[in-house]
Amino acid sequence: MATGGLLHFTNPLSSVVNPNNTYKQQQQLLHNHRGSFCNKLFSAQNRKRRRRKASLIVCKASGAQQSRRGGGVDADIDVGQDRLSKVPISNIRNFCIIAHIDHGKSTLADKLLQATGTVQKREMKEQFLDNMDLERERGITIKLQAARMRYFYEDKAYCLNLIDTPGHVDFSYEVSHSLAACEGALLVVDASQGVQAQTLANVYLALENNLEIIPVLNKIDLPGAEPDRIAREVEEIIGLDCSNAIRCSAKEGIGITEILNAIVEKIPPPQDTVENPLRALIFDSYYDPYRGVIAYFRVIDGRIKRGDRVYFMASGKASCFYTLPLCYKFISNFDCTKYDYYADEIGVLSPNQLQADELFAGEVGYLSASIRSVADARVGDTVTNYGRKAEKSLPGYEKATPMVFCGLFPVDADQFPELRDALDKLQLNDAALRFEPESSSAMGFGFRCGFLGLLHMEIVQERLEREYNLNLITTAPSVVYRVNCVNGDIVDCSNPSVLPEQGKRKSIEEPIVKIEMLTPKDYIGSLMELAQDRRGEFKEMKYITENRASLVYELPLAEMVGDFFDQLKSRSKGYASMEYSFIGYRESDLIKLDVQINGEKVEPLATIVHKDKAYSIGRALTQKLKELIPRQMFKVPIQACIGVKVIASETLSAIRKDVTAKCYGGDITRKKKLLKKQAEGKKRMKAVGKVDVPQEAFMAVLKLEKEVL
Ligand SMILES: Nc1nc2c(ncn2[C@@H]2O[C@H](COP(=O)(O)OP(=O)(O)OP(=O)(O)O)[C@@H](O)[C@H]2O)c(=O)[nH]1
Q: Which candidate, 197, 203, 162, places its Cα nearest to that of 182?
């Protein structure tokens, strides 16, 4: 275009500078052409300026977003995009890595990124895809992560979309999300540990999703590695052909090329449905304070272009902030379902976000559409084109059911709105999190939150504190009890403090889980003892190999919340693993145990316990609280009660703590400093009447298990 414009513009000029013209003729010609000459010069300059400005905006936008995601890809973005978008659908492979916790998924993902040159050596760090501080500190994957890689196989370029998944049982819903976006899975098994509970659970999930499974035996560099035996074990237990299982060491970089080749050879390419109406499955999303909701999706059918008008089928919602005046939103009875979003930005994850103009069926990418309401773009939703809607949405995901509930209260009551906002945003990134407002006289306003397990609960609390700068008090976790009332009502109760009174309830049912423990035969005895102590009902025991057994028990979920997992690990020296699933409710002899501090009932400390254990738990709880609550300037009785009957009691003796006592005279700033230090120490406490109760006291009931049993 630019060249065309210039040619047009040089023709008249060449006639002006014709050497055969006299000076006067040239002046006249110049004068005649000045108008058009200047206009053309001006418009050409303008065009150039506009182009420069536009490319500057694109660079700025991509630069900003890369720095936010911690990336460093620069000028070759467009070149890279061009190359990638030219890959035919038959050369695309979508796969995820599944394994038991710590079998080496993230380490393998790192090596794949490195081997394909997706991440340069200087940018490489351990657990590259785990970009949350929390994931790095704990060495676990919490969120699934996606990355697009380019790989040359037999002189052809392939586009490999990798999704790394978490291994812990609490985050298995993340695994199910990734599986639906893939055609294949790398099943990583530690060659020294063999098949574990989550290996089995994840394989079943992958088979349900009809994925091609490639077995990979990792950690062959370890002295205790027995890849041949483990290959036989995988064949026996899972029934997967392991004759060609890849032996690898993600740490040492052995077997990485074989894995990449196997991905290309064995995993089928996505189906070519580019001509169908757009259907893209959202498998993850998060809230960006600058750009609104960012959704990660896999295009199942059709294509999506930047600027397309898109429609979220499940939310049945869309909005056009650009084309309709904002005031429309506030007109009563306005039909929100007419709204739609514009895809301002689409792109691929490489693993940083890289803008693209168009994505086709089979590709994995992200979408930003200035979506402000987190409820409008939920994980599991289907994105379609507003102008050419798909008839049916994709199956989506089963809703995750929270198993464990606890109260989250801001230490500073003013932070309540911030906490609500933070939970809202976090829920977008964490589909299993549930919350509803709760208030109590001791704690003020807060939220009752539901989690999939204790690790999930800990992670959410830490993320709220770190990412949203909140200071929180967490109450002891509880499960959801089902209370059959005398008047025939059935009440679901996740908060012991609101359990209907003794006279009003007929019976209490508690959730039961079926738990399967895989253990070397040496630890069968101690694990059976553990399950029996926790009111477990023995169901089945079978040897899955010569040395390993599977133990199946049915046990109350409440007994598993707490240190069951830690006990399982310590009693089996870390060799046993477990997997559980909810099977239903069962009536049980349960009562509510209240705690009184200084004569005042502390609702958040109330728990529901089995009648047989009430006395021992009451005694241990009061002793624990005595250790945890700092001494006050007066005597503090701590009592455990059933109804009005006190079953255990301890007394905290008085102390007069004058931190400035040692300061005789001297500078006032010194005294102030001491008082300030003391005040800081009190921050994490909640005043119950006159007594300050520290955070640890609310979790005391969790720490009792060993002493009570
Ligand atoms: N010796 C040896 N260690 C390995 C190998 N691969 C991984 N590891 C180590 O195993 C530990 C766990 O590795 P990760 O990659 O974090 O495991 P993961 O499966 O991603 O863990 P989660 O995401 O928490 O489920 C780390 O300490 C790794 O350094 C290997 O091939 N050889």
A: 162
